[in-house]
Amino acid sequence: MEKQQKTTGQQDTNAALAALAAAGNSFANAHSDRVADSVQRITALEKKLQDEQQRGQDIATEIIGTVYDQLPLMLAKVLVRQYINCLTGPETADKIGLSPDTVKNYRIKALAAFVVPEPVEVCDDEA
C-alpha cells in the first residue's frame, strides 16, 4: 500500500510538473507572439518614419528650387539659410559674408517677393 501511495504521489508530482511545463510553454509562446507583433509594429512605424522623412526632404528640395527660380540669388540664399538650414540672422550674415542688417533687409524683401498663394475656398451653398 505504501509503495502504491509513493507511485501515486510520484505520478501526481509528474503530472503537476508536466502541467507547469505546458503552462510555461504556453506563456512563452504567447510572450513570443507579442514580441513578434511588437517587432512588426516597430518595423512598420520605422518605414513610415523613413517615408515621411523622405517626403520632407522632397518638399524641402522643391521649396529650395522654387526659391532660387523666383528670387535674386542673394535673397534666395538668405531665405534658404534661415528657413531651411535654420541659421540665425548673424549666422546667415557670417556664412554669406554680409552684415546682419543687410541679411535682415534681404529676408524682408525676399519674403515680400516670394508670395505663396493661399487656397481659395469655394462655397456651393450661396443663396
Structure description:
By secondary structure, this protein is mainly α. Helices cover 81% and strands 0% of the residues. The chain contains 4 helices and no strands. Helix 2 (73-84) packs across helix 3 (89-96) and helix 2 crosses helix 4 (100-113). The termini are far apart. The model has no long low-confidence stretch (mean pLDDT 81).
Give a short synopsis of this structure:
This protein has helices at residues 2-70, 73-84, 89-96, 100-113.
Keywords:
single chain; 127 residues; mainly alpha; rod-shaped
Write the layout of secondary structure elements.
Layout: H1 2-70, H2 73-84, H3 89-96, H4 100-113
Helix pairs in contact: 1-2, 2-3, 2-4, 3-4
DSSP E strands, number: 0
Describe the main β-sheet briefly: none
Helix percentage range? over 70%
How many helices? 4
- The radius of gyration over CA amounts to 34 Å
How large is the share of residues in beta strands? under 5%
The helix-and-strand class reads mainly alpha
Kindly state the mean pLDDT as a whole number? Answer: 81
- Uncertain runs with pLDDT below 50, 5 residues or more? none
End-to-end C-alpha gap: 101 Å
Shape: rod-shaped
Order of helices and strands: HHHH
